[in-house]
Write the structure tokens for this entry.
Amino acid sequence: MSGHKARVSALQTVVAGSPLPPNDVQRITTELTQVYTAGRVRLVGRRLLLQVLHSTRALDSTLAALILAAGGQGPTSLGNSLNHLRQVGLNGNRLTETLRIRYQNGIVRPRNVYMHQAGAYPANTTEVGQLLADMQACLVDAINLW
Amino acid sequence: MRSPWAEQLSQDYSGRYTVSLRPDLPAVLQGPDLLVARDGRLFAFFEPTAHEKRVPVRLLARLMLCRLALPDHVRTVLLLVEPLMDPRVVDHVRVHFHCVADSHVSSETIIRRARASHPRPVPKATRRYVQLQTAFLLRPRHEPKPATRPTTRSIDTDLGALRLIGHKELEPVQLRELELPGPPRDVIERLPASILAETPEATYSSGVITVRPEPHPSLRTASEEFRRYLPLVPLLTFSIDDGVPYIRRPFLGIFQPTDAAIGDAAIGRLRIPGAAAGWAIVRRDGQRKLRSLRNELTSWARNHM
């Protein structure tokens, strides 16, 4: 399933069940909807790139919104958000270094490659599925810090 | 896998709640049947399968793994469908869910009851253990270098023979545990007979379960093969109390799908849910590689006791 609909809808439900304000939930679930609507794009490389873009943007916004809601300053990037969760945390609960490294390597690094390097595309739909899997784990761990 | 009542409920909640029917949670092979959320509240619905009705401990293993894959504030709901499970089984299982619903209860009442229940979060120690276990099982592994000791003595208990070997290329002294034909006593005490009867090909040795299943006509994919053995590790590692998993004794597992079911994609799909449940999914390579992996897992399980 190239659109990853079941995985995206699970992510949307977890976001809707998170302590984020309703406006943020609406914004992020709409962004996630773009992940499977991008599944209709015919050029495979472009489709996968769009899926990476929309999914990581959704995670970026979710982490930033959680940090803001917990009284932190809005981080400017996904890597900064992970560092904030590691060093400051949410309501005094911090992310472990094991997890920060896992998400830095599994999400931030590939995202940066695809966003900044000309000609770089995800190899296949499995890679996007893997990214979504790491994102969901990251999201659950971040919410559990609340 | 059909779950008719969960489907019905998803239609009832749709529009008022964010709903995900049979959500794809990457950290579990089989998630809840329905996930519903609104206003910072999250509800997971479980409709027992025919197999879970016969072997209810499988339902508890599914619940446990789903709780680990979802945020702490999730409320779990058991949907008791017709034909009802054995009443004694229901009594044993119901305490582990935040709320139990039968078909006479309206969808809004289910949510109201679930909201009113105690949260029962997963202990931090359990979460931390699962994070470390997952990171350990997902890290890339390298082929061990052959040992080059001048003279080695090996006691191979698998063969029941003592051999003295004078060869440079063989591995160093290593005393492996004796693999008994059946599960050891502590495993028999902890696992229900129903689960043991369904998993005859599992072998146990000091904190590690190894499974090399024989081809079975009804189990065509690696995922179908693995599903049968999946609950062994979490059921041995954790005890479940009021639906909350507590660490009992670390166990890890090695699962080697049959050649018929294997494929890179199949292994790739199983790696994350396998690691989250304490399993390393590996190809059927040489005995030497398996032995090295088993030693690695044994040390890890021992160090995390």
